[in-house]
Amino acid sequence: MADSERLSAPGCWAACTSYWRTRKGLLLFAEIILCLVILICFSTSTSAYSSLSVIEMVLAAVFFVIYMCDLQTRTPFVNWPWSDFFRTLIAAILYLITSIFVLVQGGSSSKITAGVLGLIATLLFGYDAYFTFPLRQQRHTAAPTDPTDGPV
């Protein structure tokens, strides 16, 4: 998943720059930036919906650091692929609900912009959830079978 695309990097800065070039690194970086922009749009109009953006931005940053520093291999007691999948799935659902509610409610242009960006965030988090789904990434190989009529 996250480390299959990673380049070998000896230092911390090299690990950071090599990780954000992977698909998962780009998705997490885009999620952080999009949540920050949505937070700014909500903050200028109303503070009622900004907590979702703050929580998702912090969680995306935490997962970015975990995958960048390769901490998911050092902490085996947490199932990181499933945790990341549920984080992105719940974020997509919550952004969809919040964005529809904000767009139906109407209001200032920054609130409508935040609603539209929330729909874009729904697509981004849904895309991330689709490619993070752990069962999708398992490769099944056919088991070797012996002939049924006995040894030859």
From TrEMBL:
Mode of membrane association: Multi-pass membrane protein
PROSITE patterns according to UniProt: MARVEL
Bilayer-crossing regions: 26-45, 51-69, 89-106, 112-131
Keywords assigned: Membrane, Transmembrane, Transmembrane helix
GO CC annotation terms, alphabetical: plasma membrane
Compartments in which it is found: Membrane
Domain MARVEL residue range list: 19-137
Domain of life of the organism encoding this protein: Eukaryota
GO terms assigned for molecular function: chemokine binding
Protein function: May play a role in cell differentiation in the intestinal epithelium.
Annotated protein name in UniProt: Proteolipid protein 2
Source species: Octodon degus (Degu)
Lineage per the UniProt record: Eukaryota, Metazoa, Chordata, Craniata, Vertebrata
